[in-house]
Design goal:
alpha/beta, 6 strands, 233 residues
Length: 233
């Protein structure tokens, strides 16, 4: 296989020219607009995406990645102008090893297993709040009762936002289709936001939290802090 240096990898960091490294292999995903997870794939263009890929994908996704393989990563030479996390390779590798050990322990301890009864309770109680809100608006002419209904409706929307968050992160069901359908119901119908827009934006936030884009053409910045000129972080 062709050997690709860190310097060459780092030169391909825009959506239209995107190379990724995963477990020592390099993949060319340039212009892959049909990526099922959206534009989040470009947040690690020009860099290693091993841990992000593992966090976001089931193991079945590996077969789809292989068709983009273009070579193997050669980490023997560290260019002085490369990203900060590569300037101390031994420390970086130790950090990555420790992180992966911690994640494996948490998985083994069941910390990533959702509680079905909890989500049945949360969804049911939230729709009860909606029912009470409608009752306050329909069954009473009192302005105070109507205002109480408005407060309850706001609470319903607030709770719907976090429930949609959990379902669309696929942390409730093992079958991701069920999570997407619940996200469409609670996020798309109850709150009225675009599920695809939210997933693309929020996944990018988790992939590169609180990081600014490395260049105007790159997609490696957190969209949640892209608030200029109203607010600077």
């Amino acid at each position: 296989s062709r050997k690709i240096s860190l310097e060459e990898l780092s030169a391909h960091r825009t959506p239209d020219d995107a190379w990724l490294a995963y477990k020592g292999k390099v993949y060319d995903v340039s212009g892959w607009k049909d990526h099922p997870g959206g534009s989040v794939i470009f947040t690690h263009a020009g860099d290693d995406c091993t841990d992000i890929f593992t966090a976001f994908h089931p193991t079945t996704a590996l077969k789809d990645l292989e068709k983009f393989n273009i070579g193997v990563l050669d980490e023997s030479i560290i260019p002085p102008a490369l990203l900060a996390n590569k300037l101390k390779p031994d420390e970086q590798k130790e950090f990555e090893r420790s992180y992966r050990e911690l994640r494996a322990k948490l998985l083994a301890m069941g910390y990533f297993n959702a509680s079905p009864s909890y989500y049945v309770y949360k969804v049911s109680s939230n729709f009860c709040i909606l029912g009470l809100s409608i009752a306050c608006a329909v069954l009473s002419k009192s302005i105070l009762v109507n205002m109480l209904g408005a407060v309850l409706l706001g609470l319903f929307w607030q709770q719907s936002g976090w429930l949609a968050h959990d379902f669309l992160h696929h942390q409730v069901f093992r079958n991701r289709t069920y999570g997407d359908l619940m996200g469409l119901l609670i996020g798309g119908v109850c709150q009225g936001f675009s599920v695809q827009w939210w997933k693309s934006k929020h996944n990018s936030h988790h992939a590169v939290p609180n990081l600014h884009a490395s260049s105007p053409n790159a997609a490696d910045g957190d969209p949640d802090i892209d608030t200029m000129p109203l607010l600077a972080w």
